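Sample entry (155 residues):
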Amino acid sequence: MTEVRRKKNPWIKRVLIAGLLALVAGAIAIWFIFTEKFTDITKREAAFTVNAMDFLKEFQTNDSLANTKYLEKIITVNGRVSETEAADTTINIKMIDTATDAYIIFAFQQQHLAEAKQLKEGDSISIKGSCSGGTYSEILETEFVTFKRCAINKQ
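Predicted structure, serialized as tokens:
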């Protein structure tokens, strides 16, 4: 009986060590994901520069094709501020197509909130951000495109 017990122990130790190593590797991966810092968007080169209303029309025409083209790319959007709204820790700026109610919404990076707070409805502006994609909302019955990590483009 003691021989059987000795043979089982090496397997148990190996399984426990492998499980512990997997747990540590998983914890490290999660830590890197949650503490990831993004480069300031103002230091990144834009892949596209677009007019807000033309950009919205692309998504309204074929959102799958537009998402393939623009998703997770840095884009500079030129247009007029239609609306500003304060969220928990950010300011959201909207550019709305009044004919279709489609809109683009920009969430600003923490370090650019002061600039975003100064924007008013009707201001002509150039905003650079990472496109999160667009979709049609069945509830709102309109197309919308979201951007993250935005900043006012000063170039």
